[in-house]
Amino acid sequence: MSDQIIDELGGAYQYGFKDDVTPTYTTGEGLSEDIVREISEIKNEPEWMLEFRLAAYRIYRELPMPNFGPDLSQLDYENINYFRRDADHVARDWDDVPEEIKETFERLGVPEAERKYLAGSSAQYESEVVYHNMCEDFKKLGIVFMSMDAAVQEYPELVQEYFGKLIPPTDNKMAALNSAVWSGGTFIYVPKGVRVTTPIQSYFRINAGNSGQFERTLIIVDEDASVNYVEGCTAPNYSEDSLHAAVVEVNVLKNSYCRYTTIQNWSDNVYSLETKRAQALENSTMEWVDGNLGSKMTMKYPSVYLNGEGARGTMLSIAFAGKDIISDTGARMLHNAKNTSSSIVSKSICRDGGRVDYRGQVRFGRKSDGSISHVECDTIIMDDKSASDTIPYNEILNGNVSLEHEAKVSKISEEQLYYLMSRGLSEEKATEMIVMGFVEPFTKELPMEYAVELNRLIEYQMEGSVG
Amino acid sequence: MSRLEIKDLHVEIEGKKILKGVNLTLKSGEIHAIMGPNGTGKSTLSAAIMGNPNYEVTQGEILLDGVNLLELEVDERARAGIFLAMQYPSEIPGITNASFIKDAINAQRPSDQPLSIRKFIKKLDETMALLEMPESMADRYLNEGFSGGEKKRNEILQMMMIEPKFAILDEIDSGLDIDALKVVAKGVNQMRPHDFGALIITHYQRLLNYIVPDVVHIMMDGRVVTEGGPELAKELEANGYTELAAKLGIDLADK
């Protein structure tokens, strides 16, 4: 199967194609207060959102870049196009999406996925959502699923209550930038008692070079409710860098459940600097499932604030760093209430000069009596050119808690390779099999279709890994 | 009808000479046993035939139907028809036994003619039943957490599924109780009528009660020192290696 797939992929990043869409509106390169006003104006936003943006812009100007992690000094902010509109309205039918954009999403398999196994689907192209739809069955349940821009207009009370509360603009420079220029993204509200297991998906596509994509996602899962949300990201290859700086806030209220799955596969000219944060209230569960396969540089540490008694937070992640890729990812679990539990399982693979670091934090606050956390970091380093570090920060302010941390770094074992090859499998196939087995705890948590896709992506990443 | 010929084989590991000129010919339909005291190079012989990169062949040839195996990689030797049931099979987490065996079978076939899933499942079910393996072992990860006996059975399962021309069984009996031993023997005997030959490496005669060999080779100090029929194994069991060595004029203590 593997050879066939590799042939099919033709040895290139398979999502690297670009189309030729001319934007209907753009703010041009660079950023100023006027551009922030312009973005707000073109979206016809209420005054409070403009004020929020302007305040965030001032904070952005003042905050320094992070003093940890990879070197971001090559990122040229002046060159970036902060806002680009390519379609004049959000379509509810793929036939109403501009032809070229529609073709792009068809090549990415988005409409097909929607027909087959999604409760709702959204597609963002550059700065804005171009398509949004939800099955009637789910609409009837009262679930709100729309672009963040639309939610500002249609659900201003909910947005004002939750927007920027978990991640204020002061949190970090990228969060401030997003708060100033955000556009697109997803808003989900699941009413009390409504449980949806069928996934809802958003797909984010950057098409032009020098692009900035700053989507903003806000999810509210009301009491006794559940949601399963999936997002995917790809972009064409360019020599100029693009910037993706998302902010995601998830509120999981009492007795409810949210799973948030990301398959990030940006091309290798994209800086992906994201801030993702959830709060889990009493007896609720927040699960992050996070796969990072692409981009030039990724910094992302999704967190769960365990603010209610008995809340659970988990992170299951894989990161794959190939040539010239730096991945600095991890998770943060903050135990702020009694009997909360968290689990972090991080799987990393690096090869061909890639660098993949785990950076994570577990904090037990003073009120976290009886709480537990388990952290497990496994890494495979495939050659001597590649490197990995595990950087955990633990902070314990309560004596009655339990924290386990395991970390393991290994190379592909010669003995395993010999064993598999003695059954007739080529070295390449044997290596791939060992890597697939290594990430299996991750893929088995994905919906079937995503698991198949992820396996294909990893096979592709592994191509040429045996010299 | 196939033929595996080992001619004047010399093998070193980390500069230490282990095999010092082994000669042996195995034909389809034959089962040969190799016996000998610890440290005489029996496992080294199996590793050299399979192509374990830690073993260096310094002299001699290994020919499969005239093709020099020494020029082939490990996986190419396997695809040519060699199978090694290992003494210590590796564990591969995350890959199920069934999917691994399917991939291994398909690796021996042209890429456009994979074995149909139905045929594969049927054969897997039948073979596992013969080896008295519970069905759940098909879905467990390859050798992960298997007991010693389960691993050995699993090696025989792979052998029967892959159907090699020649199998080398390296101490397949170690760590097996008598019931498991019989099951493993049943598997090997099942293969016997096919285009198949086996080289059984063992310390003990016991296994050979259940798999009766055509030829028994005794190895000492890196060479085959004597050969005979199944009765040779029985003689050895009765008298031990020291007496045989004395009879052949070999000083075992020298080792």
Automatic annotation (TrEMBL), chain A:
Q: Which GO terms describe its biological process?
A: iron-sulfur cluster assembly
The residues covered by the SUF system FeS cluster assembly SufBD core domain are 204-438
What the entry lists under InterPro entries is as follows: Fe-S_cluster_assembly_SufBD (IPR055346), SUF_FeS_clus_asmbl_SufB (IPR010231), SUF_FeS_clus_asmbl_SufBD_core (IPR000825), SUF_FeS_clus_asmbl_SufBD_sf (IPR037284), SufBD_N (IPR045595)
Give every SUF system FeS cluster assembly SufBD N-terminal domain span.
Answer: 141-201
Q: Which domain of life is it from?
A: Bacteria
Family indicated by similarity: Belongs to the iron-sulfur cluster assembly SufBD family.
Identify the PANTHER family for this entry.
FES CLUSTER ASSEMBLY PROTEIN SUF, UPF0051 PROTEIN ABCI8, CHLOROPLASTIC-RELATED
- For this entry, the protein name equals ABC transporter-associated protein
UniProtKB/TrEMBL annotation, chain B:
Q: Which organism is it from?
A: Ligilactobacillus ceti DSM 22408
User: What name has this protein been given in UniProt?
Assistant: ABC transporter, ATP-binding protein
**Keywords carried by this UniProt record:** ATP-binding, Nucleotide-binding
Q: Which CDD domains match?
A: ABC_FeS_Assembly
Q: Show the NCBIfam families listed in the entry.
A: sufC
What sequence ranges are listed for the domain ABC transporter?
4-246
Question: What GO MF terms are annotated?
Answer: ATP binding; ATP hydrolysis activity
Q: Which protein family is it in?
A: Belongs to the ABC transporter superfamily. Ycf16 family.
Task: Extract the SMART domains matched here.
Answer: AAA (SM00382)
